[in-house]
Amino acid sequence: RDEALMPFYRQVVDADLFKHQPEIQAIDGMFMLPRPIRFVTAECGEINAFYSDERGEVVLCYETMRVLRERGLELAAQNGIAGADAQTLARRYLDANVRFILLHETGHALITLLEIPVTGREEDAVDQLATTLMLRFAGIDESSATVAENLRMASHWFLLRSTGQYNLDAYADAHALGEQRYFNLQCLLYGSDPARYLDIVTGGDLPEARARSCPEEARRVSSAWLRLLLPHVAPKFQMSEEKAEQLFEERARQRDRNSDAPYIR
Ligand SMILES: [Zn+2]
User: Fold this and answer.
1) What are phi and psi of 59, to 5 degrees?
2) Where are the domains of the chain?
3) Beta carbons of 116 and 62 less than 8 angstroms apart
4) Among 7, 77, 176, 264, which residue is least crowded by beta carbons within 10 Å?
5) Helices (H), the chain
6) Residue 259 CA, ligand 1 centroid: distance in Å
7) Number of CB atoms found within 10 A of residue 229's CB
8) pLDDT at position 211
9) CA torsion 218→179→120→152, rounded to 10°?
């Protein structure tokens, strides 16, 4: 109904958005769910994305896409990027965040539908799942650098929504504070391959004191989700934890082999 949201409706239709989510495509059909999860975009009247158990749907609001695009353009302007390059960056920012958001909401859906036990904050658990899936199931032609860039754009969005000045409602919220979600994500990314992502620490995006425990934290998060999900895997995908880890490593090698080599180094 809102004309201003029409470009985002068109974008979803033209790009066949859900068919081009590598992680969602990778896990499609993998789990024995009591019912399918539908993915829909909608005009919600607010900036939001959510899993509705009543409808069995992961819903992405066009309003969220619009604000993500605006933030992407702002990020470009801050970095002195203009014209077509700014449009490209904004699109990239939107795509990366949509990817993370859809996986975060898929996490809520899986927890609900599979009755996966969660102690601690569910919001943290599904951020961890989204990060793990983006590290494990990125497109086969996406390099590690692209995957890292996507995750860093997702973490940037956490920071943007933070005001830095919190009231009681923020402290009481089911979500951790934006800054905490930001550092948790940096920690999982760095911890997934400390040698490769060392610049996250040297560049000041993750304090050393936290970074020390991140390799162990990343390993634990990844193997916890693997162990929680494996019992729900459909027969033709069933495998041991060791086998799954081997497949992940093989996939990472393939991704690095397939990714474009830059002409200019
Ligand atoms: Zn959530």
Assistant:
1) -115, 125
2) 3-114+122-165+174-258
3) no
4) 264
5) 6-15, 22-27, 62-78, 83-113, 122-136, 144-160, 168-172, 178-192, 198-202, 208-211, 214-229, 241-258
6) 32
7) 17
8) 97
9) -40
Mean pLDDT value of segment 197-219:
96
Ion ligand 1: residue ranges with CB closer than 5 A: 123
Average pLDDT over every residue of 10-27: 94
56 CA from centroid of ligand 1 (Å):
15
Strands 38-42 and 49-52: unpaired
In the reported structure, the alpha carbon of residue 169 is separated from the centroid of ligand 1 by a whole-number distance in angstroms of 16
1 Cα–ligand 1 center, Å: 26
CB 98, CB 65: distance < 8 Å: yes
Q: Tell how far the Cα of 202 is from the centroid of ligand 1, in angstroms.
A: 30
pLDDT digits (tens, 9 = 90+) for 136-180: 999 888 888 899 999 999 999 998 877 777 888 888 989 999 999
Q: Residue 224: which region, alpha, beta or left (left: phi > 0; alpha: psi -120 to 50)? A: alpha
Give me ligand 1 centre to Cα 60, in Å. Answer: 12
Other Cβ atoms within 10 Å of 230 Cβ, number: 16
pLDDT digits (tens, 9 = 90+) for 55-91: 999 999 999 999 999 999 999 999 999 999 999 999 9
